[in-house]
Write a structure and sequence with these properties.
The protein is mainly α. Helices cover 61% and strands 4% of the residues. A hairpin with a 2-residue loop joins strand 1 and strand 2.
Length: 168
Amino acid sequence: MKTAQIMFMGSVALRPLKAAANEADFGVLREPDPIAFAFETPGWYLLLALVLLLAAIAIVRKIRKHLKNRFLRAALHELDAVSLSKMNVTNVFAILKRVAIRLFGREEVAALHGMEWLSYLDKTGRKVNFRGLEAPVSAALYEGKEPERMEKKRIMRNAKQWILTHAR
């Protein structure tokens, strides 16, 4: 076997390419057997336990949220049950007041009326405009005059939107 000439570059020894090619005749390279994959190690059991715990926590949180918002679904169902032709604006605002008292507390909501109440609904809801409906709402609530059909639709749409998007 020939001795290869070794060149030093810093602290790394480099062999010339021809010398390395002469010495590299090792024959057929044998690859090792593939490593068998198995879930028998403790890390997999720990990962499974963590995933199951996170799934259980997510399910419990979802169930709690569903139960907590049951009254909102009931209020929406009540609003849906009221047909536009027979809709009484007083009933719609009674439903909204009940929901607001449940959400924000009696002390904060019960005394509100008139423009203050409409402003409060606008402030706590997203994409609602009850202040723009002040005249027909006031006429319906305080004078007993029912608004026109289009105004009733706007009131109903704003009421549903407020129940869906109120800020807690």
